[in-house]
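Revision sheet: structure tokens.
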Amino acid sequence: MIIDNLNVSRGGLVEYQSLLLKWNKSINMISKNSEYDLWERHILDSLQLIKYIKLDERVVDIGSGAGLPGVILSIGGVKDVTLVESDSRKAVFLRQASKLSLNKINIIEERLDNNFEGDYDILTSRGFGSISNILQLTSNLKLSKMLLLKGKNCDKEVIEASKHWLFNVLLHDSITGDGKIVEISNIKRLL
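Predicted:
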């Protein structure tokens, strides 16, 4: 199991799990059907990204919602994580969840289509939108790479995005199911 190979406080992740289940009763952040396998389907799925991140890299997580993967990565040891979430109710949850991490978490409560800018090493996303949409909405960011948690049919999204963008892509198998981790780097818009 991934957590056994990392210097991760299991306690912080368990506290996060409890907090999410409590808040999920009033704010729909994860489906009620996925509450029973929250640990594997959501927490470990998010935590597996640490394999592709240096802990001192600056990470921006877009559409953070329930803090997946951003809060989990911070609890897991990533030193500087920015969470971007436009839903004010979810942003309140993220403020609470950020207290479970010993690392820096910055929360930005705004929409990405408001010319969001910044300089980060890595962008993460889980369940936010298509690859094309992510590339378009984050085109003002300076990034080294993206790590996108996607479903097993992400090949179609990669092909669609390559019609308008030039990039390097690596597909990594997820440890938690049929999904993929889509690693994108050297991003340039085609004219």
